Amino acid sequence: MSDIVIVGGGVFGLSTAAQYAHSSKVSVIDKFEIPSPISASTDYNKIVRLEYNDEIYAEMAVEAMRFWQGEGSDTLPPGLLTDTYSHCGRISVVPPESSPRYTFEMESLTLLQEKFGRCQDVSEYCNDLTCNGKFSQFRESQAKGKFRYNRDCGIGIAAKSLLVMKQYCKSLGVTFIENDGAACVKSSDDGVVVSLESGAQVNGRKALIACGANTPSLLDLRQNVKSTGLYVGHIQLTEQEFEKYRDIPVVFNPVVGYFFPPDPETRVLKICASASSTYDLASNGLLPRYKKLEPDTVKSIPIQSVVQIRTLLAEYLPDLLYAADGQLREIQDCKICWISDTSDSNFIIDEVPENPNVFVSCGDSGHGYKFLPNIGSYIMARMENNLSSKLAKKWAFRESVWDNMTIPWRIEHKRRHVDQIQWY
């Protein structure tokens, strides 16, 4: 019997396992081998930003950044994640002053600079993606607008960071049950029983369900969490192209898309299409639809998203738009990245109503990855009833108002359900 049973070996699950492992017997269950191919955090890279206009998340992000940059604690050794992080900076297209995103960005920078002493060196450039020559790689760019360069930002090497955390948990004695998903969770005042797809059972004192977008398939979360699919594609660089672009920052255009420094092991450059998403109509947006599980129906990404990606290449990286044979470069490994959304982008970290000893952590809303080093300490505090009342209230199981959903850093123009998509 385990003290703590964690279902889901992604960011929230592994982070919590690392915290509990110092004092408890922990089991982690995942439908696939970690890093799971259906997890949003299984990826080449993810943005690790500090910008929040909410003081709680800003303080958590600053705390997480210290771990990414090498600090340790009583539960995480110094340098654990430094090989899975690059403090590469970010260039962002400054949005119109009338937009909610502009207000969000300015409030965030002010908060970080004045209260936390971060993001002090931020500069803006008009129609100059090279940022006055800092990034000569972009001298061929045709992109126009006002660009803001913030060097206090980076990327996590996503799948690699999960593997590092998994190995650390193993070294602490955590048991991993992989390639065998949870079928149901039953609870009582005495503990929990997690039944697996194989028919096996895992008993524990408490359970944490941390399955990201897939959480509603295991728990009735009463429409408080929905699954949103975002569009991702990649291009393969040659060795020469990789050498040219290996040291670029993240470049972020919230209206068209954004791209990352290329992956050093594969020379693959990841590009995301902004301002569009998908959902599953049959479940009223509750459940994700994974290409891994439905390869014949969830095939790729929309044709329109590929157009966006190529538009981004033409404006920002024109020398990468065409391959050596003169043909348009293939947009490869296209996929939908499913995230777990709440209507206000706040996490849900709470005991599930009418399910004693069963806790849930979800609602990452696309901004949870950066907290891999530290979110587990907050989840553990809630599970042991030690979380501050302010945070417990913020992350409580609650009624969501989807009609008035406002996430100020997200701009969305187009939203079609999965069965409407014209696949690339």
Short account of what is shown:
The protein is α/β, with parallel strands linked by helices and 424 residues long. 21% of the residues lie in helices and 26% in strands. It has one domain (2-412): FAD/NAD(P)-binding domain.
Give descriptors for this structure.
424 residues; alpha/beta; 8-stranded mixed sheet; FAD/NAD(P)-binding domain
What report would you give on this structure?
By secondary structure, this protein is an alpha/beta fold. The protein has a single domain (2-412), classed as FAD/NAD(P)-binding domain (3-Layer(bba) Sandwich), CATH 3.50.50.60. Helix content is 21%, strand content 26%. The strands form three sheets. Strands 5, 6, 7, 13, 14, 15, 16, 17 and 20 form a nine-stranded mixed sheet that branches. Strands 1, 2, 9, 10, 11, 12, 18 and 19 form an eight-stranded mixed sheet that branches. A hairpin with a 2-residue loop joins strand 10 (182-188) and strand 11 (191-196). The model has no long low-confidence stretch (mean pLDDT 96). Belongs to the MSOX/MTOX family. Residues 3-379 form the FAD dependent oxidoreductase domain.
Task: Identify the CATH class.
Answer: Alpha Beta
The number of domains is: 1
The name of the CATH topology is FAD/NAD(P)-binding domain
The major pleated sheet works out as: 9 strands, mixed
Distance between the termini: 48 Å
Mean pLDDT: 96
What is the rounded Rg?
21 Å
Task: List the topology elements.
Blueprint: E1 2-7, H1 11-20, E2 26-29, E3 46-48, H2 55-68, E4 85-86, E5 90-93, H3 100-115, E6 122-126, E7 146-150, E8 154-156, H4 158-171, E9 175-177, E10 182-188, E11 191-196, E12 201-209, E13 226-236, H5 239-245, E14 250-253, E15 257-259, E16 268-279, H6 303-316, E17 332-341, E18 348-351, E19 358-362, H7 375-383, H8 389-394, E20 412-417
Parallel strand pairs: 1-2, 1-12, 2-9, 5-14, 12-19, 16-20
Antiparallel strand pairs: 3-8, 4-8, 5-7, 6-7, 10-11, 11-12, 13-16, 13-17, 14-15, 15-16, 18-19
Helix pairs in contact: 1-4, 1-7
